[in-house]
Each structure stands twice: as C-alpha cells, then as structure tokens.
Amino acid sequence: MSAHASIEVDPAGYVYLIWGELTDWVELKPDEHEQAAAEMARAAREWLSLDLADREAVARYLDYWVHDVCGYARRAGAGAD
C-alpha cells in the first residue's frame, strides 16, 4: 500500500488508521476495488474472530494490519523479539 512516517497511537487510533487506509485504497484506486474490498472483508473477519479480552491477540492484529498491510513504519526498536 503506502509508506508512512513512524507513528505512535492508542488502539482506537490504530483501527482508524486501518480503515482509513482501506477506504482510501477503494476511493483512490478504483481499478483495485475488488482487491481492496477483499482486504476489508478479511480485516473485518479477523477482527470479529478475536477475543477482545486477549490483549496480546488484539495487539498482534493491530500491529499486523497497521504496519504489515497498511505500511505505517514501526518505531525504532518496536516489534523486535
């Protein structure tokens, strides 16, 4: 998708970034509508399958979608095991 500056936000902000990026994809690249819609459906399915009480699972979901799918840079040292 796109490359963004490194950011630091709370979980609601991450959800905003994910859906903002996905809706921008649909609006700004109409020729990729089917692919964008499929990713939206996948993001929604994965979110709905989460146990929201499992903070680690929620954090992994948000990290994956914000950084790996949407392309926002991780902070230096973040995500290192």
Identify the notable features of this structure and list them briefly.
globular; mainly alpha; 81 residues
Oligomer state equals single chain
Helix content: 55-70%
Overall form? globular
β content, as a range?
A: under 5%
Class by helix and strand content? mainly alpha
Give the low-pLDDT segments: none
Largest sheet: none
Radius of gyration, in Å, reads 13 Å
Q: Topology, please?
A:
Elements: H1 11-28, H2 33-49, H3 55-69
Helix pairs in contact: 1-2, 1-3
Describe the structure.
Helix 1 packs antiparallel against helix 2 (33-49) and helix 1 runs parallel beside helix 3 (55-69). The chain has helices at residues 11-28, 33-49, 55-69. The model has no long low-confidence stretch (mean pLDDT 86). The two termini are 25 Å apart. It is built from three helices and no strands. It has 81 residues and is mainly alpha-helical. 62% of the residues lie in helices and 0% in strands.
Produce a short descriptive summary:
This protein is an all-alpha fold and 81 residues long. The chain is built from 3 helices and no strands.
